[in-house]
């Protein structure tokens, strides 16, 4: 697992109060991890803070799974 | 319209004297001070460095980790006391009709710490506020979340009247049942103002005691050397229930809630009317609403915050409301022990009033050292030591900034 993926996972575990084993690449924030719309916005904000980047709203809307988040961040921090 | 009767069948509390009703009463009766140096934040830059904090609060006993993170401390206190009260009442959540259960909560400020943290974070580090900023901070969210947790779909709102908030909530909750709008109401109040902004804000108003060298004697209502109130925090919750159905299910009944009064000082933003005109009206109207006479009152749990002006105005109002009977009734300010819980004051003091009746014991006004010549010393303030006496009817007075006054009347069954 990449460094980004590990950090993303840790944030999700902390913010959504889910078990680490549930945070798979395919897991959807809302369908699998119990996030509501507010949780999703908070997650994006935490990613921005952790990786010191800005994710515009139209791009944030496309991030719905753990894998999508990792891919977006890895592309952005390169 | 025939008004239905309302009784208290459950209670819970998290406050500076205890995290259960039993512990609270034990410490009230024994005259224990809940004050100590502030542990919630670094007070180096603050004028007042002590408060009556809640001790050993373990939120995880009452909610999930995810909830703790999303709920301001004032909501966590509300959840904890509500959980205790519902369990204490013995109501079967599976059997009751959630549409007939409402929640009217009281909070003077709400999520002050959340507001402060978010505003600071916005300035220091982030371009945006958290999506939980608003729902975590608003003063009505505790009541909303309680309804969500238990599926209570009856009337639901929060009263905001500074230090009278919880009393207003309890009066409205009583009236909902009286008028048949609900059969059970969850009510009470919570506050969590012992934080950087809360203490600094009240310090700026010169409202807080600054007796940093002796926190446990700082809250001294009606003492000549009082120098302001001591900030408290916490919550108390009640289950109010329609009398007939409570009896039918064989519920334990603490007391009957027989009336409430509400008035305004119409005088000043923060200072009380020096003659206590609003305070006099609120007690008069509360007693009338209860269908009682002033002579029926045995005990008044007064607002008595340990501030210079308020502690002079309230006894004056008692004397003009009760005449000679003022000297026969017992008075005490339990804020001498709990500190001032702001919007939750009416809840924990209503609970103190009910427990006083149940135990026929007046909890004391501790920390009395010197009489104030401006306060009639023939009034019985129950200084320093609890007093055993028959209490059949008790009043709980609360007065808030803005000149809001609310008084609740409890009667032994």
Automatic annotation (TrEMBL), chain A:
GO terms for biological process: lipid A biosynthetic process. The modification O-(pantetheine 4'-phosphoryl)serine is found at residue 37. Pathway: Lipid metabolism; fatty acid biosynthesis. Residues 2-77 form the Carrier domain. Carrier of the growing fatty acid chain in fatty acid biosynthesis. InterPro entries: ACP (IPR003231), ACP-like_sf (IPR036736), PP-bd_ACP (IPR009081), Ppantetheine_attach_site (IPR006162). Keywords: Cytoplasm, Fatty acid biosynthesis, Fatty acid metabolism, Lipid biosynthesis, Lipid metabolism, Phosphopantetheine, Phosphoprotein. Belongs to the acyl carrier protein (ACP) family. PANTHER family: ACYL CARRIER PROTEIN (PTHR20863), CARRIER DOMAIN-CONTAINING PROTEIN (PTHR20863:SF76). This is Acyl carrier protein. 4'-phosphopantetheine is transferred from CoA to a specific serine of apo-ACP by acpS. 4'-phosphopantetheine is transferred from CoA to a specific serine of apo-ACP by AcpS. This modification is essential for activity because fatty acids are bound in thioester linkage to the sulfhydryl of the prosthetic group. It is found in: Cytoplasm. GO terms for molecular function: acyl binding; acyl carrier activity. It comes from Draconibacterium aestuarii.
UniProtKB/TrEMBL annotation, chain B:
Pathway: Lipid metabolism; fatty acid biosynthesis. GO terms for cellular component: cytosol. CDD domains: KAS_I_II. The active site is at 163 (for beta-ketoacyl synthase activity). Gene3D superfamilies: 3.40.47.10. InterPro entries: 3-oxoacyl-ACP_synth-2, Beta-ketoacyl_synthase, Ketoacyl_synth_AS, Ketoacyl_synth_C, Ketoacyl_synth_N, PKS_Beta-ketoAc_synthase_dom, Thiolase-like. It catalyses: (9Z)-hexadecenoyl-[ACP] + malonyl-[ACP] + H(+) = 3-oxo-(11Z)-octadecenoyl-[ACP] + holo-[ACP] + CO2; a fatty acyl-[ACP] + malonyl-[ACP] + H(+) = a 3-oxoacyl-[ACP] + holo-[ACP] + CO2. One of its GO terms (molecular function) is 3-oxoacyl-[acyl-carrier-protein] synthase activity. Keywords: Acyltransferase, Fatty acid biosynthesis, Fatty acid metabolism, Lipid biosynthesis, Lipid metabolism, Transferase. Pfam families: ketoacyl-synt, Ketoacyl-synt_C. Residues 3-412 form the Ketosynthase family 3 (KS3) domain. One of its GO terms (biological process) is fatty acid biosynthetic process. It comes from the Bacteria. Its EC number is 2.3.1.179. Involved in the type II fatty acid elongation cycle. Catalyzes the elongation of a wide range of acyl-ACP by the addition of two carbons from malonyl-ACP to an acyl acceptor. Can efficiently catalyze the conversion of palmitoleoyl-ACP (cis-hexadec-9-enoyl-ACP) to cis-vaccenoyl-ACP (cis-octadec-11-enoyl-ACP), an essential step in the thermal regulation of fatty acid composition. Belongs to the thiolase-like superfamily. Beta-ketoacyl-ACP synthases family. This is 3-oxoacyl-[acyl-carrier-protein] synthase 2. It comes from Draconibacterium aestuarii.
């Amino acid at each position: 697992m990449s460094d980004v993926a590990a950090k993303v996972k840790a944030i999700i575990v902390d913010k959504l109060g889910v078990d680490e084993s549930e945070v798979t690449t395919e897991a959807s924030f809302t369908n699998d991890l119990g996030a509501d719309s507010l949780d999703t916005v908070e997650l994006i904000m935490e990613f921005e803070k952790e990786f010191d980047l800005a994710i515009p709203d139209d791009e944030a809307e496309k991030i719905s799974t753990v894998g999508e988040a990792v891919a977006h961040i890895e592309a952005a921090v390169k | 319209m025939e008004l239905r009767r309302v009784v208290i069948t459950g209670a819970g509390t998290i406050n500076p004297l205890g995290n259960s009703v039993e512990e609270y009463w034990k410490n009230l009766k024994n005259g224990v001070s809940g004050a100590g140096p502030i542990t919630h934040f670094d007070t180096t830059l603050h004028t007042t460095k002590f408060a009556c904090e809640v001790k050993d609060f373990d939120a995880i006993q009452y909610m999930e980790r995810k909830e703790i993170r999303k709920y301001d401390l004032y909501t966590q206190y509300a959840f904890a006391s509500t959980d205790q009260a519902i369990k204490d009442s013995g109501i079967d959540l599976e059997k009751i009709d959630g549409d007939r259960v409402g929640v009217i909560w009281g909070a003077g400020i709400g999520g002050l710490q959340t507001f402060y943290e978010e505003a600071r974070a916005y300035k220091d580090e982030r371009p945006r506020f958290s999506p939980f900023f608003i729902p975590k901070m608003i003063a009505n969210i505790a009541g909303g979340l309680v309804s969500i947790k238990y599926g209570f779909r009856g009337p639901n709102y929060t009263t905001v009247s500074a230090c009278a908030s919880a009393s207003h909530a309890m009066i409205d909750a009583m009236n909902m049942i009286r008028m048949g709008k609900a059969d059970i109401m969850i009510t009470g109040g919570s506050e969590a103002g012992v934080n950087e902004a809360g203490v600094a804000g009240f310090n700026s108003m010169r409202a807080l005691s600054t007796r940093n060298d002796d926190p446990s004697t700082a809250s001294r209502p009606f003492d000549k050397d009082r120098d302001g109130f001591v900030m408290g925090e916490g919550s108390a919750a009640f289950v109010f229930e329609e009398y007939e159905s409570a009896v039918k299910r064989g519920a334990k009944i603490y007391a009957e809630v027989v009336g409430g009064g509400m008035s305004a000082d119409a005088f000043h933003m923060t200072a009380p009317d020096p003659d206590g005109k609003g305070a006099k009206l609120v007690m008069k109207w509360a007693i009338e609403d209860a269908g009682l006479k002033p002579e029926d009152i045995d005990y008044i749990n007064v607002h008595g915050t340990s501030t210079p002006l308020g502690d002079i105005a309230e006894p004056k109002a008692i004397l003009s409301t009760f005449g000679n009977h003022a000297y026969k009734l017992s008075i005490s300010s339990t804020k001498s022990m709990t500190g001032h819980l702001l919007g939750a004051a009416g809840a924990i003091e209503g609970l103190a009033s009910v427990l006083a009746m149940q135990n026929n014991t007046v909890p004391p006004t501790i920390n009395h050292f010197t009489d104030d010549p401006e306060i009639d010393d023939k009034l019985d303030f129950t200084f320093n030591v609890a007093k055993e006496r028959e209490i059949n009817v008790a009043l709980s007075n609360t007065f808030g900034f803005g000149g809001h006054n609310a008084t609740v009347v409890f009667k032994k069954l």
